[in-house]
Amino acid sequence: MHIHILGICGTFMGGLAVLAKEAGHTVTGCDANVYPPMSTQLEAQGITLIQGFGAEQTALEPDLYVIGNVVSRGNPLMEEILNRGLPYVSGPQWMGEHILRQRWVLAVAGTHGKTTTSAMLAWILEYAGYAPGFLIGGVPRNFGISARLQGAHSSDFFVIEADEYDTAFFDKRSKFVHYHARTAILNNLEYDHADIFPDLRAIETQFHHLVRTVPGVGRLIVNGNEEALGRVLERGRWSECELFGNGQAWSLELQEGEAFDVYFHGKLCGRVQWELNGAHNRMNALAAIAAARHVGVQPEVAAEALSAFQSVKRRMEVRGVEGGVTVIDDFAHHPTAIETTVSGLRRRVGNARILAVLEPRSNTMKLGTMKDALPPSLKDADLVFGYGALEGKDAIGWDLAGALAPLGEKAAAYHDLPALIAAVTSAAKPGDYVLVMSNGGFGGVHQKLLDVLKARSAAA
């Protein structure tokens, strides 16, 4: 089958393209912004990419058009497809029908931690010899790739990051209802995606749709400390359910450093020895261990696997050290994730100074819905530098400086990237940690900061 993917350079659609190619399909695609690293990764797979959404692309005559959720009515190629009655389907639906059918799907859902938990779960199964396929919204360092059809040998298991964002302009259900998970992790649930959900209850409804798709022989792995998830379960469930968290069936006990013991119904069943910091990562790990047990991986083996887990790129990733200043990249963009990331770094570095550099570019943050939550989320940082433009484009549409004002003199907002870089590098001192947080490329700010710091160090 020849499929042509609209919106191919997004993380999910790019991963879908790789899987489709690996499965033997002919794959082409287009996007508004075709540039590295996604473009080079796809082209290396022999996938032809086209810049833009020109209607003339119908001349490719694919068997099917696969539509990403970045595509809306008015898109010239989409309008041509509709006018001519050509066959099309959403990315998640194609994924469910052509890649996931007849496989044991382990889906990881939640407002936070989907990527990291999916990577942990995939690595546990790999370590245990299950050779899973996976599609993850990041690059797990243990694998070096974000998607694969299967491992070294044929496998029935597939781990997928299960997003609650809507499927396509013609299908407003959450993506995860298309995956038909047999094992489903519900990691946490907060209000997010203000551009498509009016309130938390609307998201809870979508999560219950996911619960409804899990078969009777399946299993739900649910954070028992989350009130919103408790309300989801109260709506009804039809499969086994194991709760994790404080006082739940699956629990943990922190040991020296970042190590922790894992308990199931009060019985010690493994210890994870690792360097990842933060309570959120321990909860992610607990969920992954519980989910792996559903497919037969013993908890002690899963704990052993996680002791060799190398995390995911853009999750507290050290990009470099220049002049004694460490520059760290993190994907955090929701206030809860920002607070967790900053406090986790604080725990790790002690009294060293943290310079937080934030770009609020997610759809929710651009709307200003959660701007009042920013100051408390950044309380553990010594200095805060906000960037109020979106990678050189229009300003975010609300007063970032005003939102950060409760932080006093330690916070400032910038609308010019060179000015931001100058301010951060001028303030940075040896021993400092510069924590960059954004869910986008942020204009390559990480390397630009390192370049300036290197030049300053050389001059000194």
From TrEMBL:
Domain Mur ligase central: 108-292
Keyword match Nucleotide-binding: yes
One Pfam assignment: Mur_ligase
Cofactor: Mg(2+)
EC number: 6.3.2.45
InterPro entries, per database record: Mpl, Mur-like_cat_sf, Mur_ligase_C, Mur_ligase_C_dom_sf, Mur_ligase_cen, Mur_ligase_N, MurCDEF_pg_biosynth
Catalysis: reaction(s): UDP-N-acetyl-alpha-D-muramate + L-alanyl-gamma-D-glutamyl-meso-2,6-diaminopimelate + ATP = UDP-N-acetyl-alpha-D-muramoyl-L-alanyl-gamma-D-glutamyl-meso-2,6-diaminopimelate + ADP + phosphate + H(+)
Start and end residues of each Mur ligase N-terminal catalytic domain: 2-102
GO biological process annotation, one example: cell wall organization
Binding-site positions, ATP: 110-116
Pathway entry: Cell wall biogenesis; peptidoglycan recycling
GO molecular function: ATP binding; UDP-N-acetylmuramate-L-alanyl-gamma-D-glutamyl-meso-2,6-diaminoheptanedioate ligase activity
Keywords tagged on the record: ATP-binding, Cell cycle, Cell division, Cell shape, Cell wall biogenesis/degradation, Ligase, Magnesium, Nucleotide-binding, Peptidoglycan synthesis
Keyword Transferase: no
Role played: Reutilizes the intact tripeptide L-alanyl-gamma-D-glutamyl-meso-diaminopimelate by linking it to UDP-N-acetylmuramate.
Record family assignment: Belongs to the MurCDEF family. Mpl subfamily.
Designated name of the protein: UDP-N-acetylmuramate--L-alanyl-gamma-D-glutamyl-meso-2,6-diaminoheptandioate ligase
Gene name of this polypeptide: mpl
